[in-house]
DNA sequence: TTGTATGCGTTATCAA
DNA sequence: TTGATAACGCATACAA
C-alpha cells in the first residue's frame, strides 16, 4: 500500500505562486527570465520559494502549451554501433547550435514489430526525427504522412516527399575495389555483401564492387560475397567461414569498419599477415578503425557534410512545414592506411 | 512570409471526432485500444478518418494528462564512446521490458556550463534519468533535490539520497596489476591514471594499481602514471609520449578499452610486440576490444548486473517516490586474452 | 455503447 | 509592473 509520501505530487507553479504571494504569471515570467516584466524584488522572492520547494518546470505542460519540445530524435538500429555513435555525437553538437537537444533511441526492438519504427509516440514526442533506416521493410514508409518533420538517413529508396541523406555507396565500393585491384589483389572477398540484390546499403556497395570487377575483367566468384551481420563478431565469423571452407582470397572489402575489425582478427588468428597476405578496406572511417593494428584503410563518407545537410533539412522542415524535401547524396573517398599496400 | 500551408496545425482528436461524427472520447478509446468500449462499426469509422487525416496522438498532451511520459533518459558524456554505447543498448533492452523507451542524451555541451547537466528540462522531460557522471563537478549534485527519479552511474561520491551504481575500481585495478606482475611485468604504465588523487573513476583505478605495486614491493614511478583523455587517439598519444620520452615499460594498464586500443597502436607502431615486449590490459571488456589483434585482455565489470540493478533502482523510484536509495557496487574480474602472457 | 464535463501545468493575451 | 483568463490536446470520472 502506497504511503502518503508516495502520493506527494511535485510542486507546480501554482504552489510557488501561492507561497510567494504572487500570481502564476509572475512565476512563469521569472522562470523564463523575462526580467523586463518582473521587478527585482519579486524575482528574488520567487527564486527563493523555487529553491525552497525544489520546483522544476513541467516540460510536457510547457510543450503542450508552446507546441514544441526542444528535442529532436535520432533513431538508430542499435546504440552500440561504432558508426552511429559518431553520427549521433556530430548531430548532437550541430543541433545544439540551433538550441535543440538530441535524443538517441534504438529501433532494435521496434523493428521486430515492423511498422512500429515510426509509431505515433516515437514521432510526436519530438520536434523532429532523424531516422537511420538501415534495415527493415521499406514499405513502412509508403503509407506514412507524418506531421513530424522527418529526415531519412540511409540508402533505401523512399518516397519523394521525404528528405533523405545517403552516401555514394556504388562509387565508394567501385573505387575501393579498383584500388585493391591496382594494389595487386585478385580474389577480393566482400564481407557483408548482398547476395540477393535488394536496395539497402549492402546492395549498393555490392553493386559498386561487382561493377569494378567487371570493368577490370576480373571474374566474379559467388563464394566471395559473404553476407554478415553488423557487429565485429559477425565480421570475424564471416572471414572465419571463408578460411574454414578453404576459400582463397587476397583482400577483404568490408561494408563497415565494425565488420572489418572482426574480419582482421579472424585473418590474424590464422597467422596471415595484413596487408602482405590479405589487404583490408573497411567503410565509415571510424576513430577505432584508424587505431587498429595495422590502421584500417576505409571508405570515408563526408561525415561532416552529411551531418550539416541533415540538420539543414530537418531544421528547414521544423521551421516551415512547406520546406521542400531533398535527397542529398554525400561523396565518399577511399582513405588508405596500413591495411592496404602502398 | 509563411504561406497558409505553414500554418496548418496537425489534426487533433477533435478534428477526427468531428469528421467521424463521434465524440472525442470515442476517438480516444479507439486510439488506446479500449475495444470493449467501442463498437466495431465505430472503430472502423474512426480508423478510417484517422488514416485519412494522418492523425497522430500528441504525446506532450497525453503526458501532461497521464503524468508520465513513457521514456527514461540516459545522460552520457559523449555518444561516440565504446563503453557507453554498450551500456546504452543493454539499458534500452531492459527498460523496454518495463514498457519504457530509453533516450540517450549527451552532456558534453552541457558540462561546459557545469550545473546544467541536470537542468530542469533534462530532468522533467523524462520519467526518470540515469546519469553517467564520469566527469564534471560533484558539487552539482549537492543542492539538487530532484522530483524526477534519478540513478547515478559512476564512481564519484554522491549524497546518500541518490541511488548509485558503481564498480569495484580499486579491486579490479589491484587484481589486474597483480596479474601483470605475476606475468613478469615490472614497469607498468597506467594510461589514463590520476596523478592528483581525486575521487573519479581514474582515481579509484589508480589507487588499486598503486596498492598492488606497494603490496608486491615494486617501486612506484611517477613517470608511469600518464593522464589521458577518453578517446582511442588519447591513448595513442599517451603511450607515444612515453615512448618518445624514452620511458621504459613492459606493460600498460589502461583505464578503458578505448584508451588501450590507441595505446596498442602506438606500441605496435614502434615495432614492439604485444604481449612479448609489452603486455596490455584494458577496462570495460568491450566487443571491439575482444576483436583487436591480439585480443585485448580487459577488466570486465559485471555489466549485466550493473544494468539490472540500475533498472531496478530507477523503476523502484518511478513506481514509488519513497523507494529507498541504494549504493550498489558491481564486481569486476580480469579477463585474459591475447595481450597478456599465459 | 456513447457522450459531457473537468482538469493536468503552462504561457499568450489582454486588462488593470 | 502585476494579475486574471483562456487555451494547448488528451484521458479520467461519471452520466446518459
Automatic annotation (TrEMBL), chains A, B:
GO molecular function annotation: DNA-binding transcription factor activity; transcription cis-regulatory region binding
Stretches assigned to the HTH lacI-type domain: 11-66
Pfam family, one: Peripla_BP_3
UniProt xrefs under PROSITE patterns: HTH_LACI_1, HTH_LACI_2
Swiss-Prot/TrEMBL keywords: DNA-binding, Transcription, Transcription regulation
Gene3D superfamilies: 3.40.50.2300, lambda repressor-like DNA-binding domains
Keyword Cytoplasm attributed: no
Domain of life: Bacteria
Name this polypeptide is given: LacI family DNA-binding transcriptional regulator
Species the sequence originates in: Demequina capsici
